[in-house]
Amino acid sequence: MYAATKPLPWFALRVRARSAKTTATLLGHKGYEWFLPLYKSKRRWSDRVKELELPLFPGYLFCRLDLDNRLPVLQTPGVVNIVGIGKTPIPLEDEEISAIQCIVKSGLSAQPWPFLQLGQQVRIDRGPLSGLEGIVVHLKSQHRLVVSIKLLERSVAVEIEAGWVMALRP
């Protein structure tokens, strides 16, 4: 018999501007598990409209790593540092990363959102995001679930149906 090993924790990596996709690919070639949540955005130029895939957390990439062996990650082109307090890297909550992964997999329209801490805490009890917890906001006759990464003080909003929501008690 063997003992199941706990997966390595997720860390946020600060990356150089507009280099997240390339940096993620390089980390993948080194054998690291990474996560770069993207969303689609339409951009208008004078002669055309183009749909781009942009990071939900501009300037950041998520990576599972062992802090005792962080040098290969820090030496990867595009990586600026591992996010933490002072010079001490702090792992992210697994639930926060799982929630963002669920939103990306759902295919629902998501976008970056200002960081929120106060507001009505809810759980989604139906639909493709069932089980997620976050804050509900109302914008332009649409309900959105806001999910936050506290360490980065960044949030993501995803469109939801009002009937999917169940309020949580404080």
Summarize the structure in words:
By secondary structure, this protein is of the alpha+beta class. It has 2 domains: 10-89, NusG, N-terminal domain (Alpha-Beta Plaits), CATH 3.30.70; 94-167, SH3 type barrels (Roll). It is 16% helix and 40% strand. The chain has 3 helices and 14 strands. The strands form 4 sheets. The chain has a 6-stranded antiparallel β-sheet, with helices on one face. The model has no long low-confidence stretch (mean pLDDT 89).
- Taking strands numbered 1, 2, ... along the chain, how are they ordered across the largest sheet? 9-13-12-11-10-14
Annotation field: number of helices: 3
Low-confidence stretches: none
Helical residues, percent: 10-25%
Order of helices and strands: EHEEEEHEEEHEEEEEE
Instruction: Write the CATH homologous superfamily of the largest domain.
Output: NusG, N-terminal domain
Number of domains: 2
Could you report the average pLDDT, rounded to the nearest whole number?
89
N- to C-terminal separation? 44 Å
CATH domain class name of the largest domain? Alpha Beta
What is the CA-based Rg, rounded?
A: 17 Å
**Main sheet, how many strands, which sense, barrel?**
6 strands, antiparallel
Structural class: alpha+beta
CATH topology of the largest domain: Alpha-Beta Plaits
